[in-house]
């Protein structure tokens, strides 16, 4: 039997407290949970929210959508967490109010995990019941495991049982999250079927079961590109409503996403520089979009496509890196030389194929474009 349970519920000890929302609230953690970081926005929404809430939901579906997409709550500005089509978010939220689970599907970096965390935070006030799917995910991480010391000394009992995040969410009527569902081996995925259709989790060792309280549901994420890894069985697929998260439609939309995230990440990491202007973001986003689509934005030239995904998430990290370089080794304002190495690293994932793609792009597009000489030179230097 495998004992590699990843979660350490004993350490958190908040299993029973269904209303406990924040875990630590400590300012010094590197990355705060959404429900802690945006506690003020959630509280403001709760105050003005007079629409009907599904059982156990902290907010009405309308208020959850406002939290995710941004808007106003009384005097408070609610920041947009997800930038994209409103309808997609409405469908996702509405699904969670039914007895079907939600599957967020998309290429890497389309905010699947990000959205799943925010939905759980807004609906349940707790985004921490997560199973991280890997090829090594075992059934105990979906169902329950045992604390072997207690099992040996006390025998099978509730005390000796280690609940999975799903079991905890069932008991408390909250949202559980499963990351990278398709990486989980098929037989382990199947243990989800009873949970999702019967809404109960039998514990044969104790002759008991855990029945899901109202409010329980599951948000899973999966990567389009990983499809071949472990296909979802059709039995499992039927228990999910799938929402496909697209790559941003337009360059402007993508620039807004990158700008917003870089700003808030820079603040959280206390990088002593701020993005002024959008010029560098526009260049990075343009390069990513052109290489992703295999043609220049004006549609005039065809390009070779890179093997990497060049997602919005990678554009965010190129900019973030550049900002750190500018802050600590430059004059605080981001320049072509600060983004060049990140850019080249993001594009060249395959050392042979992508190098050819990048070199062609550099010589035919970057070199010739008005006002891009500095970037051309900086990129040449890092090759
Ligand atoms: N449409 C969008 N709106 C807001 N943020 C976005 C959007 N698209 C991407 N992002 C940002 O991209 C980053 C990466 O997102 P996330 O990690 O959720 O991607 P993912 O789809 O889970 O990728 P993977 O398949 O690699 O797990 C997040 O910081 C998120 O803010
Ligand atoms: Mg993810």
UniProtKB/TrEMBL annotation:
Residues 102-240 form the ATPase dynein-related AAA domain. It comes from Humisphaera borealis. One of its GO terms (molecular function) is ATP binding. InterPro entries: ATPase_dyneun-rel_AAA, CbbQ/NirQ/NorQ/GpvN, P-loop_NTPase. This is AAA family ATPase. Residues 10-25 have a biased composition (Low complexity). Residues 1-28 are annotated as: Disordered.
């Amino acid at each position: 039997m495998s004992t590699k349970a990843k979660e350490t519920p004993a350490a958190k000890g908040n299993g029973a407290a269904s209303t406990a929302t924040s875990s630590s609230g400590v300012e010094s953690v590197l990355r705060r949970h959404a429900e802690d970081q945006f506690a003020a926005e959630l509280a403001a929404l709760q105050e003005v929210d007079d629409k009907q809430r599904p059982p156990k939901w902290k907010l009405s579906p309308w208020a959850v959508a406002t939290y995710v997409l941004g808007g106003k709550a009384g005097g408070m500005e609610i920041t947009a967490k997800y930038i994209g089509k409103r309808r997609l978010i409405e469908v996702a939220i509405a699904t969670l109010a039914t007895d079907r689970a939600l599957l967020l599907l998309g290429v890497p970096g389309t905010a699947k995990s990000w959205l799943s965390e925010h939905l759980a935070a807004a609906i349940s006030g707790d985004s921490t019941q997560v199973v991280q799917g890997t090829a090594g995910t075992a059934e105990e991480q979906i169902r329950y495991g045992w604390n072997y010391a207690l099992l040996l000394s006390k025998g099978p009992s509730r005390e000796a049982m280690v609940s999975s995040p799903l079991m905890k969410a069932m008991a408390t009527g909250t949202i559980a999250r499963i990351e990278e569902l398709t990486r989980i081996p098929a037989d382990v995925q199947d243990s989800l079927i009873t949970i999702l259709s019967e809404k109960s989790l039998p514990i044969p060792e104790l002759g008991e079961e855990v029945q899901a309280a109202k409010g329980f549901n599951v948000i899973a994420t999966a990567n389009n590109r990983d499809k071949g890894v472990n296909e979802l069985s059709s039995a499992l697929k039927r228990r999910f409503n799938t929402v496909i998260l697209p790559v941003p439609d337009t360059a402007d939309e993508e620039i807004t996403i990158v700008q917003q995230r870089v700003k808030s990440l820079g603040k959280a990491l206390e990088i002593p520089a701020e993005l002024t202007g959008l010029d560098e973001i526009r260049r990075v986003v343009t390069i990513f979009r052109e290489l992703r689509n295999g043609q220049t934005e004006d549609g005039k030239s065809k390009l070779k496509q890179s093997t990497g995904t060049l997602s919005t998430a990678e554009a965010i990290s190129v900019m973030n890196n550049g900002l750190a370089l500018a802050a600590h080794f430059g004059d605080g304002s981001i320049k072509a030389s600060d983004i060049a190495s990140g850019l080249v690293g993001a594009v060249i994932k395959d050392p042979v194929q992508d190098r050819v793609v990048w070199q062609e792009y550099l010589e035919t597009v970057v070199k010739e474009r008005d006002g891009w000489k500095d970037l051309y030179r900086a990129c040449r230097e890092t090759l």
